[in-house]
């Protein structure tokens, strides 16, 4: 792109969309200019127009995408709409940045990914937690071999407390037809992304236990325990809930060279002086153990979060900077959440890559009997 | 008992037996006197005789049990032998204290428990970690309702590092015929006891994933992930391994009144000002959450560990003091470990109470093809 400024349009002026508008309009993103906003709600459009009269405001997505007023679109609509809107935007020749999750079921997301590749345009996803220096450091330590071969992952992410009043705040919330899931689709996409992004591995099979409407009057899952096995023999756990207070956010990764725990905004790193495997081979003492060092890493700066993702996406368009969160990678975390649903519905193991048709068929059954009646894609 | 001193005999002069001898002979246990020791090994007997010439030393268990030289016996032999030796001791009219685990399969342990009840004698088990003031405090907090209704348990106990040299130090080690299991039978009995003792609940069903001989040349399990569901709707996890360093020992319990975490020798306690349930019922804010207090508890003293159990057992005989660890309760932790094996072998859910015959039949298959050839009970 030869231009020096990327003109952005935002679809959806809800909580996330408004947040992104504020970020753009604060001038924090170099090389980015917000020029247009689209929302189906007349009230939302009026609200935007009143605050920022210079913005072009659209009712219909297609009108904005084909208006010529924008080079890139940021999609911040309900989950189900991300793939179809992204595909329309690619057809309009635009660069696309989508909010998480990539979509609701991976079959739909795979089509979006194909459209993205065919378009040749820049495609990103707002995985802002990939900007968090602690998760970046963990990923770097693993990529550089500092943890050795990964043996176990264990993420307890139960601090997503959501009272009934939250679920009652929108009839689409926590329904199969409105959101396509619960805590896995709405709250956990970041952790489901980081869980595989940090270690660079997807599981090969999974046995998950979702509980639906636990301590809450909702139809979707809000309490999940998932056990996974990886190709290299490692195992993993992912536990989440929206009904616990104060809850926990603790991510532990063990390799044959040590252990990292991220909890309470801290990364703790224990490193073995030699790999457990090497020690074990030479050791002759029944109660011997490899020498372990507690490592103090340099201090971490603050996380640039959303602004970091918006800047990186803009730089990718203007300068070809590599994306921190390519849109195509949204399918990985979604695969994990789809697999957790399917394993629970079948009460059995599921292998990965997932049987996408089976998952979609099972999901459609739940959508048909959902308490929230809408026409979805 | 009208006597003022309990005369003890110990069966088994291995690591644990020698430890108990030292404790008794140091004079740390009020009202207890060690008078006799029994071991099949001539070398062990000579060793004991050389160190403490005043002790009576026996080769055959029955001879010591019926010698009239002892009032109580402490059984510190291989796991399989605990039930048969305990039953013989009850027949001899003795009080019995057994090392953990209670036995290897619950059918065998149930017979021992029946014999204990019929004898009317005092029956204890060396669950010395029940003396640890942190686990006692957790149990007390739960019993008194400070955590409310239990919603989740999560124990990561992966700091049982055992190198191959450990497994190679005895041909019976880590074999189905010699020990009847691996990390669950040998290393984890304390945690499997505390896991249900602290919360006062056994699961109603379980789905477990044992891995056998992981990173080690052994035939039994040394890597386990178990998921459980309790009658009241709570869920739980238990994760253990002998091949990880430095490993983790972290026990988290969540209730509708708060959360406790025991890790790194510290108990952390977060308490909700009102129960999550009560808050949720009255709350109208979509992102509201119950007020949470971080509680600082009074300092914990050191744990009396083994000496505490020996003193309590002696006091139970002499003064009728209630036992901290009644022998009959050894069956609970063993049930959990048996269920973890069975769920893995069947690759399916197992309900509790466990199908004892099915478990025993499956275990016997493994004993028959065990690499360690012995005649076991």
TrEMBL record, chains A, B:
<dbReference type="InterPro" id="IPR000683">
    <property type="entry name" value="Gfo/Idh/MocA-like_OxRdtase_N"/>
</dbReference>
<feature type="domain" description="Gfo/Idh/MocA-like oxidoreductase N-terminal">
    <location>
        <begin position="6"/>
        <end position="124"/>
    </location>
</feature>
<dbReference type="Pfam" id="PF22725">
    <property type="entry name" value="GFO_IDH_MocA_C3"/>
</dbReference>
<feature type="domain" description="GFO/IDH/MocA-like oxidoreductase">
    <location>
        <begin position="135"/>
        <end position="260"/>
    </location>
</feature>
<dbReference type="InterPro" id="IPR052515">
    <property type="entry name" value="Gfo/Idh/MocA_Oxidoreductase"/>
</dbReference>
<dbReference type="InterPro" id="IPR036291">
    <property type="entry name" value="NAD(P)-bd_dom_sf"/>
</dbReference>
<dbReference type="GO" id="GO:0000166">
    <property type="term" value="F:nucleotide binding"/>
</dbReference>
<dbReference type="InterPro" id="IPR055170">
    <property type="entry name" value="GFO_IDH_MocA-like_dom"/>
</dbReference>
<dbReference type="Pfam" id="PF01408">
    <property type="entry name" value="GFO_IDH_MocA"/>
</dbReference>
<protein>
    <submittedName>
        <fullName>Oxidoreductase</fullName>
    </submittedName>
</protein>
């Amino acid at each position: 792109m030869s231009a020096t400024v990327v003109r952005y349009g935002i679809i959806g002026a809800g909580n996330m969309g408004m947040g992104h508008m504020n970020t753009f309009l604060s001038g924090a993103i170099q090389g980015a200019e917000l020029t247009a906003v689209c929302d189906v709600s007349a009230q939302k459009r009026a609200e935007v127009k009143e605050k920022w009269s210079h913005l072009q405001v659209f009712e219909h997505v297609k009108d904005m995408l084909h208006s010529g007023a924008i080079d890139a679109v940021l999609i911040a609509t309900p989950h189900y709409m991300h793939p179809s809107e992204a595909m329309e935007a690619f057809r309009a020749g635009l660069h696309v940045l989508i909010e998480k999750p990539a979509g609701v079921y991976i079959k739909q997301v795979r089509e979006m990914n194909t459209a993205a590749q065919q378009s040749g345009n820049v495609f990103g996803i707002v995985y802002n937690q990939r900007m968090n220096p602690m998760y970046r450091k963990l990923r770097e330590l693993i990529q550089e071999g500092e943890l050795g071969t990964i043996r176990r992952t264990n993420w307890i992410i139960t601090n997503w407390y959501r009272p009934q009043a939250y679920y009652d705040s929108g009839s689409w919330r926590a329904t199969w037809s409105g959101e396509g899931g619960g805590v896995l689709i709405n709250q956990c996409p970041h952790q489901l992304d980081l869980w595989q992004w940090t270690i660079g591995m997807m599981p090969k099979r999974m046995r998950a236990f979702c509980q639906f409407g636990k301590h809450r009057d909702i139809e979707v899952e809000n309490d999940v325990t998932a056990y996974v096995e990886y190709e290299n023999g490692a195992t993993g756990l992912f536990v989440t809930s929206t009904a616990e207070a104060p809850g926990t956010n603790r991510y532990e990764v063990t390799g044959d060279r040590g252990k990292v725990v991220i909890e309470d905004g801290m990364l703790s790193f224990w490193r073995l002086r030699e790999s457990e495997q090497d020690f074990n081979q030479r050791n002759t003492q029944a109660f011997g153990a490899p020498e372990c060092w507690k490592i103090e890493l340099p201090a971490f700066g603050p996380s640039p979060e959303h602004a970091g993702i918006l800047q990186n996406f803009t730089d990718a368009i203007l300068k070809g900077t590599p994306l921190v969160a390519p849109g195509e990678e949204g399918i990985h975390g979604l695969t994990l959440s789809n697999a957790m649903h399917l394993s629970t519905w079948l009460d059995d193991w599921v292998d990965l890559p997932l049987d996408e048709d089976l998952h979609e068929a099972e999901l459609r059954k739940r959508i048909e009997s959902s308490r929230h009646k809408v026409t979805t894609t």
